[in-house]
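Input/output pair, single chain:
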Amino acid sequence: MKKIFLTTLITLFFSCHDPVIWVNYDESFEINENQNHPNKRMRFKLIQSKYETKNKWFNKIENELKDFKIDQYHKLKPLIIEKSIPEIQTHILNNSLTYEKLVLFYLFRIKSIEFDKEKYLNSIISINQNVIEEAREKDKIKPKSIYSLHGIPVLLKDNINYKNLPTTAGSFALNDNISSNAFVVDKLEENGALILGKSNLSEWAYYFCNNCPSGYSAMGGQTLNPYGRKKFDSGGSSSGSGAAISANFSSVSLGTETSGSILSPSSANSIVGLKPTIGLVSRSGIIPISNTLDTSGPMTKNVIDNAIVLKAIQGYDPSDNKSADVLKINIESIINSNLKDKRFGVFENLMKDSLYLNAINKIKNLGGTIIKFDPPTINFNDFRKILDYDMKNDLPNYFNENQVSFSSIEDIYKFNLMDSIKRSPYGQGIFKSIIVDSTDSNKIRIIKSRIKSEGQRYFSEVIKNYNLDVILSINNFHAGYAAAAYYPCLTVPMGYDKNGRPYNLTFISESFTENKLLEIGYAFEKETKFRKNPIN
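Output:
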């Protein structure tokens, strides 16, 4: 009798209040299961965020979503899952899809998976409460081209400012930081894109704690990989962007990179990621690590979508001291590209990797010329001193420009210590080292000059000596050298190992050669089609 009464009471309560969709559960068994994982960074201390936000964002749009039923979802799946922007825009032009239905589909899918205790990925931190109404407005106008971003939903890594949502960098300290749009968000909106929400990330773009897992943040919890939730690393720091796009939670996303933070999660989640040349894409309104090396870039399921997003977000920004307007993305040249007579440099010491070797053989069969090489020995000492020095100075500048209540890394460090179990369960080792670092500006200037020169020498000698179009790498193996050199990188799926773990082939070339990278990446993807949807 008591049980019947209690059930009735709960039913009555939730019929009069916003429904509680998610309740944090006892995850101790899952945590214990992972304590013998061969990758020590997968030995999680926690998975769920202590700052539960899922109900907060979905309760506000529940009324909009309640009329979208499971049969509509299944009917739309063939039109949306794994489809490129041109394919989606073709469906729009054929009146078989609307932007409102596209948004409702993604929201329904996010809710279905992220609120399922057996499937959730913790890839989303927040949802734009206005996105459904904004989609209805987009439906009043048809796209001018199938290569248009008009009406296309975009997820932003949660260190990129968006006026309608907090920008937290995954930290509870910035829980109420609502700031004006980043320059790249203005560019997206000028091109008609819809901001669907914010994706999880490694807290403070993975420059916060030592030996902590990729994809963990206090605000978002532990991002999990859709190819193996507690089996494979999610990559970082744009972890949620990688997992969400791979899981078909949005059409495209924006990540950020200082050294590997787009390339790593793109590779881990079998999607396409582009780390642009520093200066091609504005950094204004993005929470920084390093003004020297930071950039934003597209993370997508395919190369053509990547090109479409890059074309939209690039452009000169007078408030970014490294901004340059020197390159135009040519969609036509990309879709008509091939690999015939292109020259590829391959690392001799990577040839033992079977997936790398297979990709090289595919390129050779498609008309590419392969040149093996051993890279020069370079002096890359003190690379991290650049990041330490820059973050110590650049983060306070962001705080000041965006009226954040903190003024320094030390302020954040002290704030977290007041409740470290919730705010910094893996410690604040990197923040602590930044606080005590005393490297002066003259020494940093010398280090920056040497590191950039050495990074360029690592690639430029072989590129010039062998007249190469691109160098081929794996995942984010050479991300640090490319970052230092200001060289762009495009990473594209190249297969899976025997355990199902994704791997990517990464194309590297000289500064402001993104169009060439996209041409080559598109031609490779078109003929290989290695990406597989993580259907389970």
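The two ends are 41 Å apart (CA to CA). Residues 1-17 have pLDDT under 50 and may be disordered.
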